[in-house]
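hiii, so i know i said id send this last week but things got crazy w the move. better late than never?? heres the sequnce for the chain we talked about at the cafe, plus the structure i predicted for it. fair warning i was half asleep when i ran it
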Amino acid sequence: MTEAALLLARAADVGATAFQVARLALAVAGLLFALYVVVLGALALAAQRRRR
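okay and structure toks below
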């Protein structure tokens, strides 16, 4: 392989790794958001029960 082809292959590998990291970060952010919604719902229910 030529040096240009090696550089292109290396850039593709780096791009694929960056894409995988971004997917993982989005998955973690989604899970944290879901946890946030569940906690808010639980707090709202607890506040509603306490008023009655």
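btw Helices lie at 3-51. thought thatd interest u
miss u guys!!
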